[in-house]
Amino acid sequence: MKRLYRSDEMQLEKEGKLAWLTLTRASQLNAMNNDGTIALNRVAQAIDEDPDIRVVLIRGQGRAFCTGIDLKQLSIEKTGIPTGSESFSPDRRPRRGIVAAEQNIFF
């Protein structure tokens, strides 16, 4: 597998036409923090720029797929979540198939 992106929050790898996005904050049950939202935008850009990727499979390390927003961080500091054209929003339609997997169950 070829690594396309890596941060403390997630990594993106690809093999052929399939990309694997793995959330890597297992000790925090893969809760999404501020850096995670920035990383997700970078991953979305990398996927968008790679014409070979046809399907993206999203999974989480450890026992949880993703528990949502990191409420501990939210209570400590202001969020730095990108807005406007920088954001990963539902209005931006993906040009690839996206599949989420939790404990080997695919959605």
Describe this structure in words.
The chain is α/β, with parallel strands linked by helices and 107 residues long. The chain has one domain: Alpha-Beta Complex (2-enoyl-CoA Hydratase, Chain A, domain 1). Helix content is 21%, strand content 29%. The chain has two helices and six strands, in the order βββαβαββ. The protein has helices at residues 34-49, 71-76, and strands spanning 2-6, 10-15, 18-23, 55-60, 97-102, 105-106. A six-stranded mixed sheet has the order 1-2-3-4-5-6, covered by helices on one side. The longest helix is centred in the middle third of the chain and has 16 residues, at 34-49. It is globular.
Q: What is the 3D form?
A: globular
Number of strands: 6
Strand content: 25-35%
> How many individual domains?
1
CATH class: Alpha Beta
By CATH, the topology is 2-enoyl-CoA Hydratase, Chain A, domain 1
Overall pLDDT: 82
Structural class call reads: alpha/beta
Point out poorly predicted stretches. Answer: 83-88
Strands side by side in the biggest sheet: 1-2-3-4-5-6
Main beta-sheet strand count, sense and barrel state: 6 strands, mixed
Q: CATH superfamily assignment?
A: 2-enoyl-CoA Hydratase, Chain A, domain 1
How helical, in percent, are the residues?
Answer: 10-25%
Determine Rg (CA atoms, Å). 14 Å
